[in-house]
Amino acid sequence: MLEILGSIAQASNLSPIGIDWWIILGGWIPGFLGLALAFVIWARSRRDGDE
Amino acid sequence: MSDLMDSALYIVVIAFYMVALAAVGWLGKKKVSSISDWYVGGFKIGGIVMGVAFFATYFSAVLMIGFAGSASKWGMSATVIGMWHAVSAVIAFAVLAPRLSKAFRELNAMTFSEFLSLRYGSKALRYASALIIAIFIIPYTVSAFIAMGSAISTIVGTPFWMGVLVAGAIIAVYVFSGGLFSATLAEFIQGIVMTIAVVAVWIFSYTLLGGFVQAHEAMAAIDIRSVTFPAFGTNTWSIIIGLTAVMGFGMFAQPQMVLRYATISSKMNIKRALLIATFGSLLFPLAAYSYGALSRPILASFGIDVMTLKDDLIVPLFVKTAFPPWLSVLFLAGIMCAATSTIDALVHMTAGTLTRDLVRPASKTMSDKTQLRMTKMISLILSLGCCIIAIYPPGLIYQLTAYTWQVLSSSFMGPLVIALFYRRANKYGALAGLVAGFASAQLWYLFLAPPVTPIYPFFPGVAFSVIVTYLVSRVSSQKQA
Known about the structure:
The complex is a heterodimer. Chain A is mainly alpha-helical. Chain A has one domain. Chain A is 71% helix and 0% strand. The radius of gyration of chain A is 19 Å and the shape is rod-shaped. Chain B has 18 helices and no strands. In chain B, helix 16 runs parallel beside helix 18 (458-480). Chain B is globular, with a radius of gyration of 22 Å. The interface between A and B is large, with 33 and 40 residues.
């Protein structure tokens, strides 16, 4: 356990979930924003009765 | 005895799958009454079916086996490649699909090459694009066959060639019968099964390592680079950045993907497909790249160091070593669905292109009936041919796929995208863009590709394709005016 904590402490960029912030900011955030945008476009087209 | 039972169970799953897809082929055959039905589903395919079919075509066993196996060495940074697929799915459906489906319908185009030819009024463009598709789609098809063959042979214990031939037989059964109707209906079912399989393996992998954060800690304990983004300019950095662009944005100009998002029936269906395709394009690769990365600490607990293994063998070994039988069966079903859902799209598209864009123009008297019969025969021959090549694998799965995607997107990005957004785009620009994109990607691949430089051929290829198409169109249209 100490060994694990030691190696994690060496990497200052790690987020609380144990993955580099660059992975989250550079991949996960754009991916989830893309999904949110898809949901908004779909919901707006339903509201407008887009056929 | 237990091994015998397991093998019997796997064989039952494979047999059940073949019967189910034969039924899909039969259903599709009943719906095919014209050549347009076989090629483009009569432009009648709904949004939900197309949304699932989109990501089922996009992601194949190549990702579940090849890329996930490589991700065990790249670590969690590989998930960046996967997450950007969701962004590219949004752009494909929100920006490209509405214009493309309208243009396909107005021109009554049934293949990608026919679309380019009719849009630009150029036969040369038709032949050139059809030739590039016919030649370069084969390595991608072969790579999907290899993935399925290696999964079946390792999990079930049969020879590799047998796994490849099973894949070929499955494809031939339903693409032959019902064309795009059968292909998309099958892909709808396959997309659901393969997503369930991948997500189950993803959850199982985290559970095995004691939870979400604990799993990342276990990875960091073996190698801190498993959870960090690779340093600028390193080999892994260029792979992650290169594949994010190639597999994400290169998708726009892949002919088999264009046929998926250009043939939806209505605007509302495009929006439905957008939501489903984006959700699938986020979940599926995130799960696959994650379990690939997580396989390293799991296999290490069994005394296996993935760094000493060939990438393509890591996931099958992971399944064999760490999975309970129920999960192995589910994963095998997922692999079969993922492989066949991509291969069917490739075979359908290539057979259509070969017949309609290369053979038919040479024979002016060919009837629609003869053309349809010939397309079906070519789809059978193509499946068999790719099976034979796959039995003697020419390279790593992910390298074969990445190469094909780079060539196709470099050749077609300019002519396709400029056609949709620039009214004055003409045949001189399109032909010049196609040649410049293709040639620059090939030259870069030969002399400047990683590890010589950290830049993939995709970048110069697509840049040349788009810029040359635009500039030549602009200059030549001014001269004509």
